[in-house]
């Protein structure tokens, strides 16, 4: 088995852009291992990590700010290929002796970029090419030995180069830059000389090795299993890493989807033969949530209750030192716990990150914390997990408590559970379930008038939400056929007691989020 440090890597220095991590994800998509590291990483650390090239990410600062993040000077002495992106370009210009100024022509959105010099970065790129720009600062004077390699109408220095150092003012990592992947591929293979050797198999080997390095020979691990693809993948990796010292715990918090508990029991106990403990603490969770309306408080309460359940279970099973959970990169970023990115602001406390109590009685294992959902699905598939599990929609850790708007009551829970079941069933029936990211029905306290037979009937309004997304950072509402919506609406009003109206959410993320709370 290879050691992670033996893999050739491209390191992404994180200057604080919310999407800095996307760059390393793109490099991994090319089959080369990449990770996000702090902008002030030391040269010896870069060498230890076996880096073949560096990418400087974008960021919200200006290089002339007093406390602007800059790379250490010693980084340049390594002579490694460097690709600067947006703020990364400005860092290179500033630190190599050029001048960056606040531009009076702020450029935002798509721009046509003309390649003016044939260099490795632009191998096979059409000319002109569409790129995504978002910057207020721009170089005024280039450092010595740097030349312009591409221009746009508003950017005379849209891309610059000097030897193996390249920098672009636009963002090759976003899909709006039509040939961005090709440029990254040119940098990674043609400039850095990397080989394509990073696959889901190597990722699994690597994760197993890392876990074995952390967990002592006599230590045991509790895996918080929700039945979703993330925690199931963690459980499968841990099974290989620590064998019988793994205990999967599924918490029935009373906020589950229809049939969830039975599904998890059937897959894990019967089909995968895992050591599964089902902890039914639904009464405790629901009583703690009584009267609570604030979404962040609900998230925190569920997070804290989860830990209590794990602690109780751990005491019952004998001492367990480690808690493993299926935290993804997107959970961390939206809870604003990014290691290097101090500039991101919190969107929600995902219970398994921001919702954890400060004093945790376990050491934490999060083997998927650098990955996005679709990468995890590939890993799950490679591990041989059943398709039904690999393709299951994400379900938030705080469960239906965040799909019930306002106070969580048994009545509203039942409405959201039953109506969501209908939405999922009908999508499956129409062959559309796997095409969408998530589909559910939310319910709040709004009541609307209906008519049953000849009499007035007042009941709840239910909102169906079906979204399409690649990584949950952004999402678009799904343009479902009217016939399908009609069928779902009819079934909900007919089959779910207490519902009189059904609405469809037509807002994207941003500005909305995927879950209502
Ligand atoms: P939002 O609602 O923030 O959700 O747009 C983005 C994605 O994350 C899921 N989600 C969660 N997952 N713990 C999780 O494990 C949580 O607390 C949590 N909150 C939201 C959500 O379902 C969507 O896929």
Can you offer a commentary on this structure?
- Helix content is 32%, strand content 24%.
- It has 517 residues and is α/β, with parallel strands linked by helices.
- It has three domains: 9-191, Rossmann fold (3-Layer(aba) Sandwich), CATH 3.40.50.880; 200-390, Rossmann fold (3-Layer(aba) Sandwich); 403-504, GMP Synthetase, Chain A, domain 3.
- The chain has a nine-stranded mixed β-sheet with strand order 2-1-3-4-9-8-7-5-6, sandwiched between helices. It has a five-stranded parallel β-sheet with strand order 12-11-10-13-14, sandwiched between helices. Strands 15, 16, 17 and 18 form a four-stranded mixed β-sheet that branches.
- Helix 6 crosses helix 7 and helix 6 packs across helix 12 (373-382).
- The two termini are 44 Å apart.
- 45% of the residues are buried.
- Bound molecules: xanthosine-5'-monophosphate.
- Xanthosine-5'-monophosphate binds at residues 299, 331, 334, 347-348, 350-352, 394, 396-398, 438, 472, 509, 513-515.
- Xanthosine-5'-monophosphate is lined by residues 299, 331, 334, 347-348, 350-352, 394, 396-398, 438, 472, 509, 513-515.
Give a short synopsis of this structure:
By secondary structure, the protein is α/β, with parallel strands linked by helices. It has helices spanning 20-29, 43-48, 73-77, 87-95, 180-191, 200-214, 229-242, 260-271, 282-289, 295-317, 329-334, 373-382, 387-390, 410-429, 482-495, and strands at 9-14, 33-38, 51-56, 82-85, 99-115, 129-141, 147-152, 159-162, 165-168, 221-224, 246-252, 276-280, 322-324, 363-365, 438-452, 455-468, 476-477, 499-504.
């Amino acid at each position: 088995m290879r050691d992670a440090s033996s893999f050739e890597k491209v390191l992404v220095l994180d200057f604080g852009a919310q999407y800095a991590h996307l760059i390393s994800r793109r490099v991994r998509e090319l089959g080369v291992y990449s990770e996000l590291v702090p902008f002030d990483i030391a040269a010896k650390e870069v060498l230890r990590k076996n880096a073949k090239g560096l990418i400087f990410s974008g960021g919200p600062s200006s290089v002339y700010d007093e406390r602007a993040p800059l790379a250490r000077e010693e980084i340049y002495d390594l002579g490694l290929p460097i690709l600067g992106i947006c703020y990364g370009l400005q860092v290179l210009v500033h630190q190599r002796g050029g001048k960056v100024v606040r531009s009076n022509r702020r450029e935002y959105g798509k721009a046509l970029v003309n390649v003016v010099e044939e260099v490795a970065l632009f191998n096979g790129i059409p000319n002109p090419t569409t790129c995504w720009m978002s910057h207020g600062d721009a170089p005024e004077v280039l450092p010595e030995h740097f030349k312009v390699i591409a221009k746009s109408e508003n950017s005379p220095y849209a891309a610059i180069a000097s030897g193996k150092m390249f920098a672009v003012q636009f963002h090759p990592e976003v899909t709006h830059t039509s040939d961005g992947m090709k440029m990254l591929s040119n940098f990674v293979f043609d400039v850095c000389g990397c080989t394509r050797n990073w696959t889901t198999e190597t990722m699994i080997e690597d994760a197993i090795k890392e876990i074995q390095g952390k967990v002592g020979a006599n230590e045991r691990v509790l895996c918080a299993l929700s039945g979703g693809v993330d925690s199931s993948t963690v459980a499968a990796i841990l099974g290989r890493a620590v064998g019988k010292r793994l205990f999967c715990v599924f918490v029935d918090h009373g906020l589950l989807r229809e049939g969830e508990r039975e599904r998890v029991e059937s897959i894990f106990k019967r089909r995968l033969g895992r050591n599964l403990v089902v902890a039914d603490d639904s009464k405790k969770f629901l009583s703690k949530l009584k009267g609570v309306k604030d979404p962040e408080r609900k998230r925190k309460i569920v997070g804290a209750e989860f830990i209590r359940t794990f602690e109780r279970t751990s005491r019952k099973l004998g001492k367990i030192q480690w808690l493993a959970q299926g935290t993804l990169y997107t959970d961390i970023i939206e809870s604003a716990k990014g290691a290097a990115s101090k500039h991101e602001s919190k969107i929600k406390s995902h219970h398994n990150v921001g919702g954890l109590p400060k004093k945790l009685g376990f050491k934490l294992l999060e083997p998927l914390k650098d990955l996005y959902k679709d990468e995890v699905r590939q890993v799950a598939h490679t591990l041989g997990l059943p398709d039904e599990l690999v393709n299951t929609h994400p379900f938030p850790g705080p469960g239906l408590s965040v799909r019930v708007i306002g106070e969580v009551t048994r009545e509203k829970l039942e409405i959201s559970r039953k109506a969501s079941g209908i939405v999922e069933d009908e999508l499956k029936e129409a062959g559309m379930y796997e095409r969408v990211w998530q589909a559910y029905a939310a319910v709040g306290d709004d009541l609307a008038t209906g008519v049953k037979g000849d009499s007035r009937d007042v009941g709840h309004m239910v909102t169906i939400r079906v979204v399409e997304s690649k990584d949950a950072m952004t999402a678009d509402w799904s343009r479902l056929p009217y016939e399908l919506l009609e069928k779902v609406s009819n079934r909900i009003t007919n089959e779910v007691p207490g519902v009189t109206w059904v609405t469809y959410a037509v807002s994207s993320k941003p500005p909305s989020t995927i879950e209502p709370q």
